[in-house]
Structure formats: structure tokens, C-alpha cells
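Exercise 7b. C-alpha cells:
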């Protein structure tokens, strides 16, 4: 039962964060939506239930959000400069990025973090490798691509999901 409560809380918090509204009707709709999603996905979403809801994970989630926002700002500026200045190099390509993450949820979070950062798009995840379309390939060695694309996200995601 606790895994459904945990799932409900996570989905409801995301609802409130994305709607940025504390109006009673918005909260009611968010609660209903979170309840329905938790009912259908609670078992798959979290095997640990409320045991996953620890202070350490909350702290790492908050840290991750700040890191993600900062990385997104940097990437937006980089892409904007490339669009506005045609002399800046563009060398698009698909690179292999290894990951040490083991759980599918953690890999999904990493893939989405990379995709939501402008200039990169996760094309596929096969085993412990992500294939990323990168607007300006500056490295092809998997260790270097890991450091340049996903290392900053992975250390937080590992603490949150694994």
C-alpha cells in the first residue's frame, strides 16, 4: 500500500510544481489525476514504497533541480549563440555515452535530463549506453562524452533513484 501512497505523493508534487497553482480546483484535479496514475503505475513505479522517501533523496533532488536548471540555462545560451552567430561551429552527430546507472527509472531520468537540455537529444538507450544526438560534437571517446554530457546529472540521479 505504501508504494501507491508514495507514487501518489510524487505525482501530486509534480502536478503542483508544473501548474504552480494552489487554487482548490487545481489541487482537486491534481489529486484525482495523481490518484489515477498512482493506481495504475504504483506497483511498477516504486518497489520500495515510502521507504524511498528519505531526507537524503529529497536533498539530492533539490540539488539536482538547481544543477539541471543551471545546465539548461548554459545550454540555452550556447544554442542561441550558435543560431545568432553563423560563424560558431556546428558539428552535429550521434555519440555513445556510457552510464553506470542500473535501474530503468534512473536511466529514464538521465535520458530525459539530457533531452531537455538544448543541443542534445537522447536517441536510444541500449543496455548501459545512451546514444545522444549532439549539436556540436567535440568528443567521440565514450569517457569524454560521458564527462561532457551526462556526468553532472548522473551523480545526482544515482543518489535519487538507486
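Sequence design result:
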Amino acid at each position: 500500500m505504501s508504494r501507491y501512497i508514495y507514487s501518489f505523493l510524487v505525482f501530486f508534487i509534480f502536478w503542483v510544481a508544473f501548474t504552480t497553482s494552489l487554487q482548490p480546483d487545481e489541487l482537486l484535479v491534481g489529486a484525482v489525476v495523481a490518484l489515477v496514475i498512482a493506481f495504475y503505475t504504483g506497483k511498477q513505479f516504486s518497489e520500495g514504497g515510502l521507504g524511498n522517501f528519505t531526507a537524503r533523496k529529497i536533498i539530492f533532488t533539490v540539488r539536482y533541480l538547481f544543477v539541471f536548471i543551471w545546465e539548461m540555462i548554459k545550454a540555452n545560451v550556447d544554442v542561441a549563440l550558435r543560431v545568432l552567430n553563423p560563424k560558431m561551429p556546428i558539428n552535429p552527430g550521434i555519440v555513445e555515452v556510457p552510464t553506470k546507472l542500473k535501474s530503468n527509472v534512473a536511466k529514464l531520468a538521465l535520458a530525459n535530463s539530457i533531452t531537455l537540455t538544448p543541443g542534445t537529444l537522447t536517441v536510444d538507450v541500449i543496455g548501459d549506453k545512451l546514444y545522444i544526438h549532439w549539436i556540436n560534437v567535440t568528443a567521440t571517446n565514450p569517457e569524454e562524452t560521458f564527462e561532457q554530457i551526462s556526468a553532472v546529472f548522473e551523480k545526482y540521479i544515482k543518489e535519487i533513484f538507486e
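Instructor comment: The beta strands are 93-98, 120-126, 129-134. The first helix runs from residue 2 to 19.
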